């Protein structure tokens, strides 16, 4: 594999030019056969945290006042400007508006000093071809005082141009299962303005999250909540049972969460951590499944 193309910014770049390039760009929704991935590495050398922005994130995800430190998924929203820059470089082969967030892994490795700057990196070099389309991985990391304090691997999915191979089976949406006892259950209100509120905090104004009309343009019957909002909201619900540092969080996104609606968050302890599910109010279908483990 060739050496990565490196792009460096002094601070987090503006997302406005990147959004314009996304909307006007002519990338395909699925990479043509034979596409070769050329790696790319982006960095923002100085990222300064804002107490006001952290407070807005805590509000939109309903993080309880008792939860100390940065919420575990918060730094994902700070990475959005570099993610947008990744999506518009020529090395990234497909249109971002057609992508589905499939899986996510976050490792919270050390406490973050909110008064000290961080260095952020985003690295992309992976495409996998599956029976139903293509998967793209990219890694985001934050350093403080020369040490990595937080890192994330996001897996995005692009539907393929051709049909699945003969004999292949479409992935099944699992039913929600959990122990009979010791389950912390929380009803989550997904209000009419959830998409807009999270978009303002995260900078992710993907039209599927904003209105029913714009979501219908991409095949959804209603607006759907950001997957990372659902993740952050479930982590907030589970905060009494999980630490917020020295942990790994593996999340699999399943059924979309429609706006407005209600959902159930369920948390139960397992050896080494906790499992979390977000499911329909009947408790029979999963929106997401999450495993939190101590490192």
UniProtKB/TrEMBL annotation:
Domain of life where this protein originates: Bacteria
Occurrences of domain MaoC-like (ranges): 179-270
Residues spanning the signal sequence: none
Pfam families recorded: MaoC_dehydratas
Gene3D superfamilies listed in its UniProt record: Hotdog Thioesterase
SUPFAM superfamilies recorded: Thioesterase/thiol ester dehydrase-isomerase (SSF54637)
PANTHER family, alphabetized: (3R)-HYDROXYACYL-ACP DEHYDRATASE SUBUNIT HADB, 3-HYDROXYACYL-THIOESTER DEHYDRATASE HTDX-RELATED
UniProt protein name: MaoC-like domain-containing protein
Protein species of origin: Steroidobacter gossypii
């Amino acid at each position: 594999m060739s050496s990565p193309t490196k792009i460096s910014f002094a601070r987090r770049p503006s997302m406005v030019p990147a959004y314009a390039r996304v909307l006007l760009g002519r990338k395909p929704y699925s990479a043509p056969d034979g596409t070769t991935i050329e790696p790319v590495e982006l960095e923002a050398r100085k990222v300064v945290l804002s107490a006001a922005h952290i407070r807005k994130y805590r509000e939109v995800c309903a993080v309880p006042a008792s939860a100390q430190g940065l919420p575990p998924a918060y730094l994902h929203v700070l990475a959005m400007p570099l993610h947008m820059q990744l999506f518009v470089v020529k090395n990234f082969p497909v249109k971002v508006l057609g992508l589905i967030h499939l899986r996510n892994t976050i490792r919270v490795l050390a406490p973050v000093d909110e008064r000290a700057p961080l260095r952020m990196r985003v690295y992309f070099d992976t495409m996998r071809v599956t029976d139903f389309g293509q998967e793209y991985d990219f890694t985001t990391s934050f350093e403080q005082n020369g040490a990595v304090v937080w890192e994330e691997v996001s897996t995005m999915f692009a539907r393929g141009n051709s049909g699945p191979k003969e004999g292949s089976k479409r992935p099944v949406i699992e039913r929600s299962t959990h122990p009979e006892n010791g389950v912390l259950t929380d009803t989550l209100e997904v209000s009419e303005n959830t998409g807009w509120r999270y978009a303002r905090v995260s900078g992710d104004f993907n039209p599927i999250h904003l209105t029913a009309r714009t979501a219908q343009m991409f095949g959804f019957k209603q607006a759907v909540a950001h997957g990372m909002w659902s993740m952050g909201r479930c982590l907030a619900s589970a905060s009494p049972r999980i630490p917020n540092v020295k942990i790994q969080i593996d999340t699999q996104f399943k059924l979309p969460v429609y706006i407005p609606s209600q959902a159930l968050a369920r948390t139960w302890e397992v050896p080494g951590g906790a499992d979390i599910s977000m499911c329909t109010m009947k408790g029979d279908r999963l929106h997401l499944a999450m495993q939190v483990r101590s490192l």
